[in-house]
Amino acid sequence: HAPVVGVPTSIGYGRAGRGEAALNAMLQSCAPLAVVNIDAAVPAALFAAQHFAARPDAPRGAGRRRS
What we know:
By secondary structure, the protein is mostly helical. Helices cover 31% and strands 6% of the residues. It is built from two helices and two strands, in the order βαβα.
């Protein structure tokens, strides 16, 4: 029950197109997944954290910042 987050990277080999080929492949997938922008690891991590914090079985206080 974990989300699948696709994070295309601009670094690759061959005709990767600076991540555009990976991005297009992820967007055309029939699998249920979230796709973020090229080289957007931080937004992907934030999405996953928000997803887990919103779950009904999440630990108490999950997703809240500590002061």
